[in-house]
């Protein structure tokens, strides 16, 4: 099965910061004007031709991107909750971008896995793989030949092995159930 990954457009966290949203409320941020333009540009990628369905993360930035692509190429969207970005805080209490950034820096310092004998608030790369691979397997088992997946850099890295993925980036890969996801890249 071919998977065409599209990273969501650039988010605008101004509103969620002003409102003091915490945890998953922070993931209600819409796209910036640039993010909308990135989604429109992604919808014109020839890699999307022949796609059978759009699968999207439930986060607003991904759904907004998927909606633009859906409108422009005429495919339905299915939401898969397990395609969300990594949880910087599995207690869902991140209070702002500063705290989110500190947790993400620790994730990077630890290369996405807890040091031996320690735990952290954030979700590990291994946990990301354990929740996302069954989603890909599901569409493989359903017989899809080409799906479009609108998700987040942290998810897309596990499947492409590419470390830096631009907002609105479009990447193609071959997938079967024996696929081995990438750890730290």
TrEMBL record:
<dbReference type="InterPro" id="IPR050275">
    <property type="entry name" value="PGM_Phosphatase"/>
</dbReference>
<dbReference type="GO" id="GO:0005737">
    <property type="term" value="C:cytoplasm"/>
</dbReference>
<dbReference type="InterPro" id="IPR029033">
    <property type="entry name" value="His_PPase_superfam"/>
</dbReference>
<protein>
    <submittedName>
        <fullName>Broad specificity phosphatase PhoE</fullName>
    </submittedName>
</protein>
<dbReference type="GO" id="GO:0016791">
    <property type="term" value="F:phosphatase activity"/>
</dbReference>
<dbReference type="InterPro" id="IPR013078">
    <property type="entry name" value="His_Pase_superF_clade-1"/>
</dbReference>
<dbReference type="Pfam" id="PF00300">
    <property type="entry name" value="His_Phos_1"/>
</dbReference>
């Amino acid at each position: 099965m071919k998977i065409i990954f599209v990273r969501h457009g650039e988010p605008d966290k101004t509103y969620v910061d002003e409102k003091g949203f915490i945890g998953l409320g922070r993931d209600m941020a819409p796209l910036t004007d640039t993010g909308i333009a990135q989604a429109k540009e992604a919808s014109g990628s020839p890699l999307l031709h022949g796609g059978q369905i759009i699968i999207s993360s439930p986060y607003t930035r991904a759904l907004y991107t998927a909606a633009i692509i859906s409108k422009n190429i005429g495919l339905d969207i299915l939401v898969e909750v397990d395609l969300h970005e990594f949880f910087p805080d599995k207690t869902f209490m991140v209070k702002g971008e500063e705290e989110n950034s500190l947790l993400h820096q620790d994730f990077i310092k630890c290369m996405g896995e807890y040091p031996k004998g320690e735990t952290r608030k954030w979700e590990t790369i291994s946990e990301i793989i354990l929740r996302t691979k069954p989603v890909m397997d599901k569409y493989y088992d359903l017989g899809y030949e080409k799906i479009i997946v609108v998700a987040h850099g942290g998810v897309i890295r596990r499947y492409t092995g590419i470390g830096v993925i631009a907002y609105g980036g479009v990447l193609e890969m071959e997938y079967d159930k024996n696929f081995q996801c990438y750890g730290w890249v």
